[in-house]
Amino acid sequence: MQSWIIKLISIFIMFIMIFITGNIPLRLKSYKENTRLISILSAFTGGLFLSIGIFYLIPESQVFYLDFYQQQIEIFMKYYPWSFFIIVTTFSLLLFLDKVLTIVASQQNNKGQKYTYNGNFENDVNQEQQNFENKMTNNNGQINQQQNNQNTNKNIVETTQQQEVFSQKQNMDQNIEQKIIQEIKKQDSQKNFKPYLLQIAFGITAILEGLAIGLEKDWVKCLILAAAVLCHKCTEILTFANSLKKANINLKVATIMVIIQAIINIIGIGIGWGVSNQGYLEMCIYTSITSGAFIYVATLEILVDEFSNKGSKILKFLFFIIAIVIVSVLWFFEEEVMPNY
């Protein structure tokens, strides 16, 4: 079987799967997110990505670089592990884009809020109520003192103090109401901004994952890469679609965003396919970039998030190990059973 057949099938299946899976949460009112199943599948995908990056992509990038280096020995080129440098650079760049830049953008989006929420909102309200109760106690003490000292002005003082207490209570209620409104607006703003940040973050990794599929000439490796990416896309698009639904994005706009996400993956495969016949140096660079992307997605995007949650850790770890075993078996299958490929 030729690798181009795998690539064509991957393009078709990936687009259909992303489009259908992404529209299920958007259009089915009875849809309920099965977080446990998604978490287990994500852990399995993390194992696939980590083992593929270590078993296949990193060694392949080093082979391309050594082939290029052998050609440069005549001009006395000094050896430096550039392939690993590119891997680390790609990892760092994705870390910056995903964990730093998007957070800064989210903070800037909410910078104009009049009320800044810096802790537990309930604590703010409770503090406001406590301050009011303290004022009430002080006022009652003042009333009692004035009643003892000024019996002739008793009615006037009581009326004045009661009016002051009533006014303070009104002000406190207005402050609490204003803070509640501001907090709701802030949460809505963050919720509405999150899908667009996810679109950018997922889009970058989607291009690099597609690039890995497009670059591969060995049909067995291409099939393994395509299967791993499809598993990842299944969980990723559900997360993306759920964020669109929770943000109350217009259905038409949300559908367009899902289609864009599907197209981005295809673009990545097309780019990799188009440059797959380049020289050793170019292939070293491209493969190193995809290696860094796979390691990043496996570690900081999937495994850290999944194992920071409390539920089903043993089961998730089991599926993580199963994924590594599967890739290991496929590696031996390719090397021993199909040496001609």
From TrEMBL:
Enzyme Commission identifier(s): 2.4.1.69
Keyword ATP-binding (UniProt): no
Transmembrane feature ranges: 6-26, 38-59, 79-97, 196-213, 253-273, 285-303, 315-333
GO CC terms: membrane
Keywords: Glycosyltransferase, Membrane, Transferase, Transmembrane, Transmembrane helix
GO MF assignments: galactoside 2-alpha-L-fucosyltransferase activity; zinc ion transmembrane transporter activity
UniProt keyword Transferase, yes or no: yes
Membrane-related topology note: Multi-pass membrane protein
Cross-referenced PANTHER family: ZINC/IRON TRANSPORTER (PTHR11040), ZRT (ZRT), IRT- (IRT-) LIKE PROTEIN TRANSPORTER (PTHR11040:SF140)
Protein name as annotated: Zip zinc transporter family protein, putative
Organism: Ichthyophthirius multifiliis
